[in-house]
Amino acid sequence: MPRRLLLPGAALFAVVAVLVLTGCAGTDGLGHGDSAPSVSVQPRPEAVWPAWAGRTSRAPGAEASTRQPPPQPLRGLKVHAGGLASMDVHAVLRADPRTRPLADRGMIDRPGRAGIRPPMFLDLTGDKKPDMLVAADTESGRSILAVYTERGGKVYPILFTSGRSVSVETIGPDLLVRTPCADGGEQAVRFHWDGARMSTVSDIKNYKRSPHPTGTDDRRPGPSGSPADSPSPWGP
């Protein structure tokens, strides 16, 4: 190993030794007369083998999304000054061929019922305008999630996925969609805006606790496709 790679490790060992000898700092803030530490810039990823590094500067998931045609605006809809929040959720679902079968269902305000959940509005695309998130639950326990954005007065579908007992969370500007697995585990799919649609950046299955004495969870990556790849969102 080159000598220059050993020096940072030796310096780090020296720092750790000093911390062990002096003990940990207090957790109640600065001491009397101490000056505030300067704000450090967070490090950015750097390639270990630059020649093998990706050449794109687009957001994660952009490569996969380029294999699909860009989303087309929904026909017959025009967004006015009030934005997506002023639109009838039933009209939006009716204009989308994938959600049309559920468009005329009633609204629901709590789990355990079939119908359309109250639409939520979050800025997932970073354009300072809220996007529309719509979820609908069916009698079989299966749910669909659709996300729409607005550009130039038109409504664009940027995400469609489905699963059983879908729960949705946000991680910064990303969406995390959780669905329980038949074996008692859980699937968590993370979606990120890539400039065209909300694309999958991670798909992880957390399996049931291992029966081995260690008691550790068996974490394995799930399939590369998202739940949206299911040929029939209304099937079992």
Automatic annotation (TrEMBL):
Q: Which superkingdom does the taxonomy of this entry point to?
A: Bacteria
Q: Where is this region: Disordered?
A: 202-236
Q: Where is the composition biased (Low complexity)?
A: 222-236
- Protein name as it appears in the record: Lipoprotein
Q: Which organism is it from?
A: Streptomyces venezuelae
